[in-house]
Structures are given as structure tokens and as C-alpha cells.
Amino acid sequence: MQENNATNPSEKNESKKEKKQKPKKNAKPGFSETVADYKAEFKKIVWPTKQELAKRTVTVILTSLLVGVIITCMDFVYSGGYDWILSLLG
């Protein structure tokens, strides 16, 4: 009923060899490798067309103006309410 917990010595030797063959993770890539990586990443970017860019720009501007108008209206309402309450108190 005892299990054999001993490991095969050849397995230990193989794992040591595999560890030696792997490159170091701390090794810094050279400048040319880094530039090549950046170029590869830039090729993956999907740039918007001029029409999409124009639509998104107009959407951002209109949304900003709408939020600005809403905040201005809320400011007038709260300021008027605050002034009204202060005028009632004295």
C-alpha cells in the first residue's frame, strides 16, 4: 500500500537542462528590437476614416455643450433657490 514517492533521477537532469536553455526574463531587448516591436504594434492600429473622425468630433462638442447648458441651468436654479431662502430668513 505504500506509494513510490521517489522521482526518476533522469527527470531532474532534464528539468535542469530546460532551465539552462531558457533565455533570461530580465534581459533587456536591444533598441532595434524595441523599435521593431513598436512598428508591429502600430500596424495593428485601426485608424478612423475622416468621416468617422468628423462625426465623433461633432458628437463630443455637442455633448460638451449640452452638459455645460445643463450645469448652467442647475446653477441658476440652485442660486435662485438659495437667494430666495436667504431673503425669507432675513
Main sheet attributes: strand count, strand direction, barrel closure: none
Distance separating the two termini: 94 Å
Structural category: mainly alpha
What's the gyration radius in Å?
34 Å
What coarse outline follows from CA principal-axis ratios?
elongated
Low-confidence stretches: none
N to C succession of SSEs: HHH
Short description:
With 90 residues, the protein is mainly alpha-helical. It has helices spanning 9-21, 31-44, 50-89. The chain starts with 8 loop residues before the first helix and ends with a helix.
What does this structure look like?
The protein has 3 helices and no strands. The protein has helices spanning 9-21, 31-44, 50-89. The chain is elongated and about 75 Å long. The N and C termini lie far apart (94 Å). The model has no long low-confidence stretch (mean pLDDT 83).
Descriptive keywords:
single chain; 90 residues; mainly alpha; 0% strand; elongated
Q: Helices and strands in order, then pairings?
A:
Elements: H1 9-21, H2 31-44, H3 50-89
